[in-house]
Amino acid sequence: MSRRSFTAALTLSFAVAVALSGCSAVSSVTHPTATASTAAAGTTAAAGTASATANADLFTAPAIDQALQALAKKVGASPMKVLEIDVYPDYVSVEAVDPAKPTEVNKFTYRDGGVEDPRPVKLTTTGSDDPAAVLKANLFDSSEVKSDVLAKVIAGAADESKIEGAKTGEAVIKRNLPFSSTIQIFVNVDGTRADKQVRATLDGKITQVS
Fold first, then answer.
1. Nearest to 59 by CA among 142, 200, 157, 141
2. What distance in Å separates the CA atoms of residue 157 and residue 169, rounded to the nearest whole number?
3. Planar angle of CA 202, 206, 210, nearest 5 degrees
4. pLDDT 10s digits, 51-72
5. Which among 197, 204, 168 has a CA at the least distance from the CA of 31?
6. Whole-number Å distance between alpha carbons of 172 and 1
């Protein structure tokens, strides 16, 4: 099960669980954002050198398209209504609304050419905001993410980070709440002496490296 926390706007806490909390002004979702090193470590642990090389194709536009199409078929909606899309070298996952039960979210993972059984995402609310309204404010259509743009941002993230031994760990696409409702691409890059996160808009413009 996944855990998320939506606080002051929507704060996510993992286990695969989500805590929803809205604020009167803007509803936001704050992920327990994985750091570049954490993301890379998880990927490395999951795959050996040879496997990682082969699965690196999931960072390409055709592979992302294939993964999202397979996920949409499993979810039963195209486009999917999602809280987040995660792209790793060896798998792609989405936290998507059940089209038959719009207040329920499940995590679906595409790996090795197939989609694994979904895991429920537990949504809990803190505060007085309507949970359904807060959830809706955090969702976006998967079709808003263009695979060619995403692949280009991922491919250029290591150079954009300007750190020694840069290696891309994962890309996360979600709304940048509580700061803004804009959907952004967050690419975590792991380095020898430092880690960086490269942020970009859905049209591929780099907005921040930190």
1. 157
2. 10
3. 120
4. 333 345 899 999 999 999 999 9
5. 197
6. 19
